[in-house]
Structure formats: C-alpha cells, structure tokens
Amino acid sequence: MMDASLFTYALYLAAIYSLMAIGISLLWSSVGMVNMAHGATFAISGYAAYFAADWMMPLVKAAVDGPQSMTVLAILTMAVGIVSGAIFGIVIYLVAFLPIHDKPNFAVRSLIITLALNLASVQALLYFFGPQQKALPRFLGSGRMDLFGIPVRIDQLVTIVTTVVLLGLVLFWLRVSRKGLEIRAVMQNSEGAALCGISTRWTALPIMMLTGALAGVAAVLLSQNIFVNPTAGATPLIKGLTIALLGGLGSVPGAVLGAILIGFLEAATGIIPFLGQRYVLVVQFAFIVIMLVIRPRGLGGLLDETRE
Amino acid sequence: MEVKPTQRLFNVGQRPDELTLKPRGDKPWHRLRPPFTRRHWLAWRGVYNPKSLRRERRLLDKRPLWWGLGLGGLLVVTPFMSEQMINIAAIFCIFSAINVIWTLIVGAAGIFSLATMAVVGICGYAAAAANVYLGVPWPLMMPVGAVVGLVFGLFLALPSTRLDGLYYALLTLGIAEICRVSITQIKALAPNNSSINNVDSFIPAAWHLQRPGLLVGFAAAFLLLLAALLVFRLVNSERLGLLLQSAREDEAFSEAIGIDYRAARWWVFVLASCALGAIGAFYAMFYRSISLAVFSLDQLLLLFAMIVIGGLGRSEGAVLGTAVVVLIDKGLIGLGPLRIIIVTAVMIVVALFARDGLTGIKAQFRGFRNRKKSERRAARTEKGGEVMPEEATEIADKQLVYRRLFDKRLRDSLKALITPELIAEHRAKPLGQHTDALDRLLNYFRREEMPDKYGILRVGPLTSCSYRVIALSGRAGHPPRVVDDKLYPTLNEAFHAVFLLRVNDLLAS
Fold it and tell me: Which domain holds residue A222?
C-alpha cells in the first residue's frame, strides 16, 4: 500500500510542514508570541515570488539559454521568496513585537495583533490582486527520475533536499554562530539572557526575519504544486500551528517529528479508499486530539523527559 | 445710603459642578432589593465629602446606569430605523448573546475554547433537523438545542482540565473542523448544499423578511441578549464565579483552602455550552435555515475580534466589541473587503494601546494619570521641610501640607534678607524701631512654635545679675534646658545672642 512515490510524497509534505512548524515553534520559544501572521507571510512571499518570476522570466531566458535558465530562475525566485518573507517578518516585528514586548499581557496582545495582520493581509491581497489564482512557472521541473530504482518526481525531490539543506544550515547557524548562541540563550531563559546583556529586541529581529524567510521558502516550494491565491496561507498556517503544538511548542526535534508523522498520515489518508482526500483534515485533527489527550504537552515534552 | 458689596461664595472642591444627591437626614433610607435576596439593585453609598463638608449619596457602581442607557436606547430607537438597520440590530443582539456566553468560558472559567461556533452550529443543526424531519414544534426547539449543547459540552469538557491554553484552543479548533466536515457528509442534506431550510420560527412565515417580521425578530433577539446577560450575571457573580475568581488570582492557594476550581470550571463550561445550544436553536429559527457558514473560520475570527476589541472577560466588553464590529462589518457593507481591513485596524490599535480592550481604557487611563501625577510631584519636590509626595497621601488635612510648603517658601525668602549689616543693626539696637528686613525676620521668629523656643534666664541677684540662654521644652511640667554656659552681662547682649542662635537655626534649616 505504501509504495515509493507515496513515501516521497509524504516526505515532501513533511518538508513543507516542518518549514512552517519550526518557524512558529522557534518564535514561540524565544520571543513568546504565537505568530498567527505566519500564513500571511506565506501568501505574501508567494505573491512576491510569482510577480518576480513573471518579471524575470524573459530576462533570464534572454541571458541564459538552455536548461540552465530554469535553474537560474528557480534560484532567483527562491531568493525573492526568502527576502520578501524576511521583510514581512520585519513588519511583524515592528507592529506586533516592538511596541508591546515589555508591556503587560504581551502573549495575548501579540496573538491578537498577528491575527489581525493575517486577516488584513488576506483582505488586502484580495483587494489588490483579486481572487484569481496565480500559477508559478514549474522551474523545479516536472519529470520523474530514477533514484536507486525508485521513480521520484523531481520537484518533490528538490523540495525535500532544499528543505533538509536549509534546515540543516539554520540549525548549524544556531549551533555555531554568536547570534545563534544568543538566540538559544533567550530560548532557554529570556530573563537570564537579558541579565547577561543579551538584548531581547536585537535577538528577536533576526528570529522574526529567519522564521519569515522559512515561510517564504515554504511558499515558493509549495507553489510548484498549488496555486498562489490570497487565502493560500490559511492551510499552511493551521497545519504549521497544529504540528508545532503536536511537537510541543519550542521543540525543534518535536516539530520535525510531528511534521513527518502528519505528512505520512496525510499521504496515507489520501489513498485509503473509504476515507479519501476530503477526510484528510478530519483524520489529522482526530490524530492530534488523541495525541494531545495522551500527551498534553506534545511530542517535545516526551523527548524532553527522556533527555532528563 | 452705602451699598453693601455682594458677597461672593467660592465653590469648594475639584468638581463643584458635579451633581450630587443629598440624602434627607430626617428620613430612614429605603433601598430596593430583588425579591427573596439581601442584595440591592443599585450600589448606593452614603459618603461624607471632606471638601464641601456635606453628606452625599453616591452610586458606587455606575455600570447598571450605562447598561440601562445603552440597551434602553437600542430598544427605543430600533423600531424607528430602516429595515436594514433593524436587521443589523437583531444580528448585534444574537452575536452579543453568543459573545457574552463565550466570555463566560474564556474570561470566568479561563478555558480558551474556540468551539463556540461549533456548539452553536451543531445545536442549530440538531434543533432544525428535529423541527423539519421529526416535526418538533418551534417552541421546543430551544430546549432541544440546550439539551444537545449540554451533551456536546460534556463531551468537550472532558479534556479541558487536562490540556491547557493553546493546546485546548487547537483541540477545539480541530473539533469545529470535524463538525463541519461530518455535516457535509450527511447524505440527506447533500441536495440543499448541506443546509436545512424551511425551519419553523417564532416569526410567522408570512412576515418573513417583512418589517413586522424583522421587528419580532429584533424583539426576540433582544430578549435573548437579556437572558444571556442574566446567565452571565448568575454564573459570574454568584458562587461559581467567586470560586473561579479565587482560582484566577492564585490557583495553588485556592486549591490549598479546599476550592475545587476544576469542578467549577467544568460546571461553567457545561452550563455555557447548554446556553450556546439554546442560542444555536434561536439562530436557526431567526434565519429560518442553517448552513455551513456557521462553522467558517472567518466567522469565528470575527467573533474573536469582537470580544478582543471590547475587552476579554467582561460582559460589557463583549457587547461593546460586538457593537463596534457589527456596525463596521454590516453597516459599511458597500466597502467590500476594505471593511475587514478596518476591523483589523481597530483590532491592532486597541491591542497596541489598550491593555484590556475598550472597557479597560478607563482603569488604564487612571493608572497612567496617577503615575504621571506622582512623577511630576516627585520632580517638583526639593528637600527642605515641606511634605514629600509619599507623605502627602497620608496626611488627611491638606491645609497642613500647604502650610509646610508656605513655610518653606517663607524661610527661603527670609534667608535672602540676612546680611552682615542687618546683624550689625540688631547688635546696635535689639529693641525699638527697625528696618523693614529686620522687622520681617523678627516677626517670623516670634511666630516659632513653643518646643525649642529660646528664652532668657536671669542668673544671680537682681542688682548684679547676668543672663543665660535657655530653650523651652514646649511641654507642660517639663523644665527648659540650658543651651550653653555663656553668661551675658546685659539684657541687650542676651537678646542679640538669642537672635544669632535663631538666625543660625534658620540658615541651617
């Protein structure tokens, strides 16, 4: 039942979901806010990537010929997605974090503001670009290739590899750099970090930009398979949020494990004959409900306990 | 004939124009009570105004007044408005009722449930199906909805004490989605796009969407809102609410003194679900149909925006927020998507500047004003005898505070007058006519308080006496003390010695 293409599909879903979930999880554990505007970041980066690809396509085709032109376009579009995601991260930082991060009720108020930003950006996209769906060029390729005798869709493979590489880079950066050390210190104990002279404001800014950029990557990668439209961010936001919660907020390994579980669950639900695609969300929520009733703190809590 | 100047009386106090009620001193004070209780309808208090020195009657809690004005105004104005506005008013009442009950769950019980609209929708569907397919008459629809809400609430409440905060919010969001999808899968409803139509209603079918029908709908929705407020009041301010308040303030402590706050939360949640079920049945009757739009995430977020703008945890916040959002959302319907952007802008502004929503602004402003006041007072204060701000709050007689400030200013001006010439003038002639500066100084010295006031003691026989300076104790029965052992041969020299001591004290103060 679980054949090879399904396996890569599940990994592909897990890759996209983990990009979203890690963003939400990182932000919660370091800054202490639930970023409901993550879906808006996703949608806006998707639109930015679409317009950039639309505009750059003739230029790139003129400059580079042959199959390399698509690779160049893919890299440029990805860069645009990353940059626009990071810029929207700065916007969220300026509106939802900077004015109120040291005021009472920060967690609830920032949640409300990011929720409002999400609603507002969806409506603004609808207002300016209309409800039409935009399709990005398939620059990741659409053929299949043989990987150790298994036929794999190229775009899914590229997505998985890109995600693994990018997440590896991010985790490596968090592990070795000075800023990463500061971020990890804030994640462990924000008051202690502040007492050691680590500025909460200057640590939150790169985290916001980083999580925004991750959402931008997810948008560009996923828009190879779905269309870009104003409400495109809603599903990734809900999936990311549920997976971040399932993994236990603040736990990166928990988020990755949750994303893989949910990815496989979604891929499996889609092909079971009497369930089918319509029940994907229901099965997922039912699974998460059962998981949360068994483990109220999510999977990350489990990992934390075993570590101790 | 000499014209007598008209006497001007000055109003005393900060707000002399404020209307105050004066109690009749000669009559006993009757206060109305709700039947069979020892509570009062309004929180009247008799207070003594220290500024005007009068007895006053004050309404300690003015919220009933605002409630009466707001809801009474709505009730009076609505019948004269356009049909569209009547409909908006009715929708406002229904959403307010939902939000008031939701506030009970989120604010009083502290359970962050997002399944509100799911409960409303499921119960609405159940009641509508009971009416359409089982032939239950419409007056029984609300009890049916309440029973379904009770069962559904029991089911939802099971994990509520185990999970906390966001995790429970997520779970309820999931349950809402599950509800929506399972209704889309009901085969019998598929031809109507999963909605139930032609539900019986308290509005006669002939009046549907006509002006009398809209008015009946509004009146019923208004009664629904009143009932929701009554439920809120009965749960939040009576025993259950008090138990939950203690849990909100300190969970560990309330558990230690034997309050089972988990059971109290559970009860509130189940009661609120029951009420939401009844509202769901009302919803189906009001529209004469119910569709999947009840479950939509946008609707839920809009409701969330309402309780957030008004202020989480207060019934007046829920109603005020609903009024603001419904007016923008339904009143400006010509603006299209722009009106949602306006709602979100209001949300952002409120969340940025108001700590507890619109209804928390008053308390927040008072705190801000008090902080600024004390900052200003602290900046203005110099050391030197006058009252410090922290001391000033504890002195009841504010005249004393000002007296000390005045004294300090007077001493500062007198210090500037002291010159070597002035001292020489006093040495030459301690008694008799002096210059203006010396007169002012001596006048001030004469007004000193009795403790430590200087005196002159004659030492030895009258014919060959000398003089010594003493300081009075200021207390009856306690002798004065000797200041130093210098002896002055003449009285004038002794006068001058006292003068120098006082000048010294003044400059040192």
Answer: 4-231
In a domain, A298, yes or no: no
Interface of A with B in 46-85 (CB under 8 A): none
Number of independent structural domains in chain A: 1
- B52 with B73, same domain: the answer is no
CATH number of the domain that B462 lies in?
3.30.160
Residue B70 class from Cβ within 10 Å (0-12 exposed, 13-18 middle, 19+ buried)?
middle
- The residues facing B455 across adjacent strands are B470
pLDDT tens track for B38-89 = 888 888 888 887 767 778 888 888 889 999 999 999 999 999 988 888 999 9
Question: Helices B315-326 & B63-77, crossing angle to 10 degrees?
Answer: 30
Question: Strand, coil or helix: what is B457?
Answer: strand
CB within 8 Å: B340 and A298: no
If one counts every other C-beta atom within 10 angstroms of the C-beta of residue B361, the result is 15
Domain that holds residue B432: 415-508
Q: Is residue B152 within 8 Å of residue B122, measured between CB atoms?
A: yes
**Number of structural domains, chain B?**
3
The whole-number pLDDT of residue B4 equals 67
Return the residue of B nearest to A234 by Cα: B297
Given CB atoms, is B304 within the 8 Å cutoff of chain A?
A: yes
- Answer yes or no: do B22 and B112 share one domain: no
**ipTM, interface predicted TM-score of the complex:** 0.83
- Note whether A292 contacts B: Cβ–Cβ < 8 A: yes
Query: What percentage of chain B carries pLDDT values higher than 70?
Result: 94
User: Is there a domain that residue A301 lies in?
Assistant: no
Which tens digit of pLDDT belongs to each residue from A280-291?
A: 777 887 888 788
Same structural domain for residues B53 and B92? no
* Nearest CB to A296 within list B162, B308, B343: B162
Same domain as B93, residue B42: no
Interface test with B, best of A119, A262, A274, A297 (most B CBs within 10 A): A119
Tally of CA atoms within 13 A in the half-sphere of B64 that contains its CB: 10
Residues of B in contact with A288 (CB under 8 A): 170-171, 174
Query: Which of A116, A124, A234 is facing B347, going by the closest CB pair?
Result: A116
Residue A83 lies in a domain: yes
pLDDT of residue A308: 36
A247 in any annotated domain: no
Does residue A301 sit in helix, strand or coil? helix
Q: From A256, A262, A245, A260, select the one nearest A171 (Cα to Cα).
A: A256
CB of B301 within 8 Å of any CB in chain A? yes
Q: Does A288 touch chain B (CB under 8 A)?
A: yes
Does the residue B12 lie in any domain? no
Distance CA A14, CA A10 (A): 6
**Which tokens go with A46?**
């998707």
Same structural domain for residues B472 and B447? yes
What lies within 8 Å, CB to CB, of A251 at 6+ separation is: A25, A29, A298, A299, A300, A301, A303, A304
Residues of B in contact with A125 (CB under 8 A): none
A277 touches chain B (CB under 8 A): no
Check A113 against B347: CB less than 8 A apart.
yes
Structure tokens at B383: 């050391």
Contacts by residues B329-337 (CB-CB < 8 Å, ≥ 24 positions apart)? B329/B302, B330/B88, B330/B91, B331/B88, B336/A127, B337/A123, B337/A124, B337/A126, B337/A127
Note whether B156 and B47 are same-domain residues: no
Residue A247 is encoded by which pair of tokens? 């993994």
CA distance B97 to chain A (A): 22
Give CA angle at B318 (B312, B323), nearest 5°. Answer: 135
